[in-house]
Amino acid sequence: MDFALSEEQQELAAIVRAALAKRADPRVETYDEELWQLLVEQVGVPALGIPEEHGGAGFTLFEALVALEEVGRALVPSPLLSSLVTSEALLAGATEEARGALLPRLAAGEVAAFVDATGGAGPVVADVLDGDLATVLVAATDDGLWALDPDVTTRAWTASMDQTLRLARVEVEVASATRIGEGPPAATRAALVGAVGVAALQTGTAARALEMTVRYTQERVQFGRPIGSFQALKHRMADMLVRLEMSRSASWAAAYAVSSGAADGERLAHVAKAYCSEALAAIAAETVQLHGGIAITWEHDAHLVLKRAHSLGQLFGTARAHRAAVPLGDPAAR
């Protein structure tokens, strides 16, 4: 499938990239609230995929994922993925009344988190993106979709390898929650959007890794020449570029299919998450190798790429799990 961003989508990506370039800091403890408000108020990032009747911008999920790729490129902590997953879960499973009450809050920039508690019996404890920061907390069970009260829900930050992704352990207790819709369709949509969302983050992170590697090899001199002029290193960076471009193609194809409700959306989401996970792992390894000793210092961003590659490879399903979910009889998957 040949696909390219429209002029408006390219402009959106450029605006988000410029805003992030001015003040993105991968090392903030949770996330930069001023940067988040900038993206909310001046770009409307969390509102992109939310319908206008619910306070959103009325674009599509695809535009939101274009912005998410730029967040991945910046390596910046951001509640965008968790809020995006929650908004899509609400659109898929919540009642119209609940959508009207909650979606405008997400569009206005409140941090949201979604808990998939389907398939469990009794109270379920799950590790959730931004679960301890969310002011809108939604959970899906087999019996319904629930709005949890953040003030009484037990939740606590969980340490993870990647400091730019924040996880919290959340206990789902529906006795003190409000039923707002159907759980299974919300959980299904959240898993699908989570997979393509992570693929977008992985693509952006891979782009950042390649950029910093090319720049470093142009500056690092050995034997009187920039190391980027050595043929062997050129070949390795060319391989990184190929993986990046294939990741972007897989990510965009899946994002468009899931956004438009295409019949092959689920298959493409599995393909994208599987490929982008393994591509970023390979690109991150090369980034560390080609930077040499500086890559393992705290001051350089190379270690952030490596940590994010590992964490995103697990988030919303491993590459192996997504490959297993692709039908073997599908000719397009061969």
Automatic annotation (TrEMBL):
Key words of the record: FAD, Flavoprotein, Oxidoreductase
GO MF annotations in UniProt: acyl-CoA dehydrogenase activity; flavin adenine dinucleotide binding
Occurrences of domain Acyl-CoA dehydrogenase/oxidase N-terminal (ranges): 6-110
Listed cofactors: FAD
Domain Acyl-CoA dehydrogenase/oxidase C-terminal: 182-323
Family assignment from sequence similarity: Belongs to the acyl-CoA dehydrogenase family.
Protein name: Acyl-CoA dehydrogenase
